[in-house]
From TrEMBL:
Residues involved in NAD(+) binding: G7, G8, G9, A10, F11, G12, A130, R245
Keywords: Cytoplasm, Lipid biosynthesis, Lipid metabolism, NAD, NADP, Nucleotide-binding, Oxidoreductase, Phospholipid biosynthesis, Phospholipid metabolism
Catalytic residues (UniProt): K181 (proton acceptor)
Catalytically driven reaction(s): sn-glycerol 3-phosphate + NAD(+) = dihydroxyacetone phosphate + NADH + H(+); sn-glycerol 3-phosphate + NADP(+) = dihydroxyacetone phosphate + NADPH + H(+)
GO molecular-function term, one example from the UniProt record: glycerol-3-phosphate dehydrogenase (NADP+) activity
Name the record gives this protein: Glycerol-3-phosphate dehydrogenase [NAD(P)+]
Binding-site list for sn-glycerol 3-phosphate: K98, G126, S128, K181, D234, S244, R245, N246
Protein role: Catalyzes the reduction of the glycolytic intermediate dihydroxyacetone phosphate (DHAP) to sn-glycerol 3-phosphate (G3P), the key precursor for phospholipid synthesis.
């Protein structure tokens, strides 16, 4: 079973490094020439691609693989998939991005299923930084796929001695856990950046997890999925480490500092999408709504914190 990874960014390259140590694969990149020449990504300096990884700029070549991983920003996935006319029926299509599409309010696996209804969609998600995967540091992820046979095949294909995959059939829960934790990471960063302290961060993580679970269950996910790697595990990682772009963005908001506009912060668009979902579903998502407000400049961090503290008291 052949494997292709679409996307030569940090995460796609890191996966290619990890999986390429155990089996051959193809890595497609828009700017393939530097990767072909140097066998190293500028985003992962000092990490060389294994010899078993074939780098190409030919998308049709990559789409010929049996298993195709889509590693690109969430808000780019739909536009990337739309013009592809290659038949992908029966192939395993694995989303490796986290978020909710702002236009359709769908998760990444759902976007792939929409474009290729005869393919088998899946999502690879969980607590991970590209640099850790690339350097072979122990990492555990969730592989979510409704088709059990395909899930087992993907688990065997993509697991390595340092990258351990756990499978689940709850694609919705895995999608939402990976998406919503980015919003909570922004909130935690803002709390720390504003000098609110670690106790405030713990409160945001805990109440944020309650929000994540509430929306996921309402949309058909299993609550226990959110307690796993794709939910709680990823939440803890991104809410406590400055390797997280979403957390760093929150820190900048809290400190009233400028943040590099060229850095992708998936949680900003996800917060906007979740605010729309909250309106249409009637699910109470106060932290997500406040992150949307402060990210867009409509509310200050201090005002958002005051709003959350002044909400009616209730049972946990």
């Amino acid at each position: 079973m052949s494997i292709a990874i679409l996307g030569g960014g940090a995460f796609g390259t890191a996966l290619a490094v990890a999986v390429g140590k155990t089996r051959p694969l193809t890595l497609w990149a828009r700017e393939a020439a530097p990767l072909i020449k140097h066998r190293e990504s500028p985003r992962l300096q000092g990490v060389r691609l294994p010899d078993a990884v074939t780098v190409t700029g030919d998308l049709e070549q990559a789409l010929g693989a049996d298993t195709i991983l889509f590693s690109m920003p969430m808000q780019s996935l739909d536009a990337f998939a739309a013009p592809i006319s290659a038949p992908l029926a029966g192939k395993a299509l694995v989303a490796c991005c986290k978020g909710i599409d702002l236009r359709s309010l769908r998760g990444p696996a759902a976007i792939l299923a929409q474009h290729w209804p005869d393919a088998i969609p899946a999502i690879l998600t969980g607590p991970s930084f590209a640099a850790d995967i690339a350097h072979g540091l122990p990492t555990a992820l969730t592989l979510a796929c409704a088709d059990e046979t395909t899930a087992q095949t993907l688990q065997d294909q993509l697991s390595t001695p340092s990258l351990r995959l756990y499978r689940t059939a709850d694609v919705t829960g895995a999608e939402l856990g990976g998406a919503l934790k980015n919003v909570m990471a922004i909130a935690c960063g803002a709390a720390i950046g504003a000098g609110m302290g670690d106790s405030a961060r713990a409160a945001v993580i805990t109440r944020g997890f309650a929000e994540m679970t509430r929306l996921a269950v309402h949309l058909g996910a299993r609550a226990e999925t959110l307690t796993g790697l794709s939910g709680f595990g990823d939440l803890v990682l991104t809410c406590t480490s400055e390797q997280s772009r979403n957390y760093r963005f929150g820190l900048a908001l809290g400190r009233m500092e400028r943040f590099d506009p060229d850095i992708t912060v998936e949680g900003v668009k996800t917060a906007e999408a979740v605010t729309k979902l909250a309106t249409t579903t009637g699910v109470d998502m106060p932290i997500c709504q406040m992150v949307h407000e402060i990210s867009g400049g409509g509310t200050s961090v201090a005002e958002a914190i005051q709003y959350l503290l002044n909400r009616p008291l209730k049972e946990e």
